[in-house]
């Protein structure tokens, strides 16, 4: 198969959540000499873009997003050792993501992280119930371009304001863009707490992230 | 203007697709709001029957002429039913109980070996049933008699929620595709657990005159998956208890893609979320099912002015009211911090625009 066809086939495998064949397809593409970075940006990213479109048009729902994300993770596991050794094009950006303090929900955050990774972002996932101080420490250490904050409860969304306040107090607010999302998050709330962006779903998170770094 | 029906009569008439004197308004209020209203931390509300009853009665007494939805009840959020299957429950100091997805890493054989929960022995169910008993004994009788709370009122989480919470929604999603037999087993034991729990409630409070099944995650599924993995199980629950009782299905996530099939669940009343367009819901299922919805509890009710609340409710009433079968409420649970003034604006809208004799 020629490189273009291989990349298309990988994108198709993501869209069709072909978990049984994605790893071998990815290895075949590497054996064919396609750089790992190209496979992320042209293969996986193309596939996840189509997935996002199908989710937005309500053809795909949560289970399909999960299956596509899991398929993508299998491909990324094959690619990661090669990404580390290649001097390819820079990633789309570096993102630090986590669910805020007091909140243990992760399904939305996990989907967003997968979609961002599929779109070519370097993603560092801090997990759930992340204390504000931990966000600040990791932001200092990792120096991300974007911080993604997730909350599912009205009570825990206030921790998003705490993170932004802590960024100001640490003198690093201007060094990072903050995107917020989750069930109780509204555009008005995002604006009120001083976030740079709001995402209603994983597809929008990728769009907002790209727009903020454009 | 004179009203001829009590709030309970009004609710029941609308729920049975009759024409009441006016569109009923039932505030949708649950634990995180009740706790805030009483001025206590949520951690002091969830596992305290005394505080739970005190908070709920306090709010009811602030609106004595309004029937609440779900009403005064043994509220444990989503904790009870998954706990009866074996899930650990974490009670944060100021948030709703969190269910640990204890089957996330379980083997296939372990999951297939799991049995339905016993309401008299497993998890939080015995405590929830004791809370029901406590509330029946200590709730001022007038609220029980006037609004039908507790005695003959049932409530359970739905099987899709129970299965998803226990397995983790990501693993459950993969099961739908990779191991449908496993997904069906999870739904079967979840359904049986919910049915047993409802029967145990009847043992305490008497035969149901109404009951509620809350199953938000059914709307995570495609129509195909809903029809295969969720609908048959919900149908079982509603068929078990419908009889003379009014059955209410609650789902406040975006179920607009399921409107062609959701009425097949067999409920009398559909409590739907704020993202749905009431006109579409009315058009699709309004002849079969009473609609219970759906003012935006955040954008309008929490953050809007009373005038905006009344205007939004007027619009909803104009759409939902014709030919009966509409009850005004919030699209999901009232948010902590919501003003009494804005709740009053909803009541005023029902009074001003909801009469059926105009």
Describe the fold and architecture.
By secondary structure, chain A is of the alpha/beta class. Chain A has helices spanning 3-15, 22-31, 36-56, 62-85, 107-118, 132-142, 158-169, 187-192, 202-213, and strands at residues 93-99, 121-125, 146-150, 177-181, 197-199. Chain A has a 5-stranded parallel sheet with strand order 2-1-3-4-5, with helices on both faces. In chain A, helix 7 links the parallel strand 3 and strand 4 (177-181). Chain B is an alpha/beta fold. In chain B, strand 1 (89-90) and strand 2 form a beta hairpin. At the A-B interface, helix 4 of A face helix 9 of B.
Itemize the secondary structure elements and their pairings.
The complex is a heterodimer of chains A (about 210) and B (about 350).
Chain A: H1 3-15, H2 22-31, H3 36-56, H4 62-85, E1 93-99, H5 107-118, E2 121-125, H6 132-142, E3 146-150, H7 158-169, E4 177-181, H8 187-192, E5 197-199, H9 202-213
Parallel strand pairs in A: 1-2, 1-3, 3-4, 4-5
Chain B: H1 7-15, H2 31-38, H3 49-62, H4 80-85, E1 89-90, E2 98-99, H5 108-112, H6 125-138, H7 141-147, E3 153-157, H8 159-167, H9 169-178, H10 180-205, E4 210-214, H11 223-241, E5 246-251, E6 269-272, H12 278-285, E7 290-295, H13 297-302, H14 306-320, E8 326-330, H15 340-353
Parallel strand pairs in B: 3-4, 4-5, 5-6, 6-7, 7-8
Antiparallel strand pairs in B: 1-2
């Amino acid at each position: 198969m020629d490189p273009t066809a291989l990349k298309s086939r990988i994108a198709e495998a993501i869209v069709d959540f072909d978990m049984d064949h994605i790893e071998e397809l990815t290895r075949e593409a590497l054996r064919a000499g396609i750089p790992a970075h190209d496979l992320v940006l042209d293969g996986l990213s193309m596939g996840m873009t189509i997935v996002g479109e199908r989710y937005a048009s309500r053809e795909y729902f949560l289970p399909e997003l999960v299956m596509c994300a899991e398929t993508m993770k299998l491909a990324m596991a094959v690619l990661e050792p090669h990404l580390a050794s290649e001097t390819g094009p820079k990633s789309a950006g570096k993102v630090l993501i986590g669910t805020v303090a007091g909140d243990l929900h992760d399904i939305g955050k996990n989907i967003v992280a997968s979609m961002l990774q599929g779109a070519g972002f370097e993603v560092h996932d801090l997990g759930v119930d992340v204390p504000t101080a931990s966000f600040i420490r990791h932001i200092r250490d990792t120096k991300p371009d974007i911080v993604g904050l997730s909350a599912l409860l009205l009570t825990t969304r206030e921790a998003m304001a705490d993170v932004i306040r802590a960024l100001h107090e640490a003198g690093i607010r201007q060094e990072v863009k903050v995107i917020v999302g989750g069930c109780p998050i509204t555009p008005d709330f995002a604006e009120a707490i001083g976030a740079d962006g709001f995402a209603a779903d994983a597809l929008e998170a990728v769009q907002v992230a790209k727009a903020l770094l454009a | 203007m004179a009203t001829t029906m009590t709030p309970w009569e009004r609710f029941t008439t609308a729920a049975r697709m009759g024409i009441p004197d006016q569109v009923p308004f039932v505030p949708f209020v649950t634990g995180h709001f009740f706790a805030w209203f009483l001025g206590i931390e949520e951690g002091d509300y969830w596992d305290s029957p005394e505080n739970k009853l005190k908070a709920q009665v306090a709010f009811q007494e602030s609106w004595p002429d309004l029937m609440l939805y779900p009403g005064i009840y043994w509220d444990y959020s989503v904790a009870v039913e998954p706990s009866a299957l074996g899930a650990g429950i974490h009670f944060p100091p100021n948030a709703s109980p969190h269910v640990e997805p204890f089957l996330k890493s379980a083997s296939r054989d372990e999951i297939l070996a799991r049995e339905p929960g016993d309401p008299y022995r497993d998890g939080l169910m015995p405590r929830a049933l004791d809370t029901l008993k406590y509330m029946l004994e200590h709730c001022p009788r007038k609220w029980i008699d006037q609004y039908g709370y507790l005695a003959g009122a049932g409530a359970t989480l739905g099987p899709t929620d129970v299965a998803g919470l226990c397995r983790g929604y990501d693993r459950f999603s993969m099961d739908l595709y990779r191991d449908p037999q496993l997904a069906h087993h999870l739904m079967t034991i979840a359904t049986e657990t919910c049915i047993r729990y409802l029967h145990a409630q009847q043992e305490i409070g008497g035969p149901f005159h109404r009951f509620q099944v809350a199953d938000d995650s059914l709307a995570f599924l495609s129509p195909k998956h809903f029809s295969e993995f969720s609908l048959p199980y919900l149908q079982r629950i509603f068929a078990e208890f419908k009889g003379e009782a009014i059955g209410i299905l609650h789902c406040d996530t975006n179920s607009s893609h399921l409107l062609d099939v959701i009425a097949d669940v067999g409920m009398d009343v559909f409590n739907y979320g704020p993202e749905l367009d009431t006109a579409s819901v009315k058009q699709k299922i309004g002849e079969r099912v009473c609609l219970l919805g759906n003012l935006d509890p955040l954008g309008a009710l929490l953050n809007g002015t009373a005038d905006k609340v009344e205007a939004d409710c007027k619009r909803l009433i104009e759409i939902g009211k014709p030919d009966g079968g509409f009850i005004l409420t919030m699209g999901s649970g009232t948010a902590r911090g919501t003003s009494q003034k804005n709740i009053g604006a909803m009541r005023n809208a029902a009074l001003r625009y909801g009469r059926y004799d105009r």
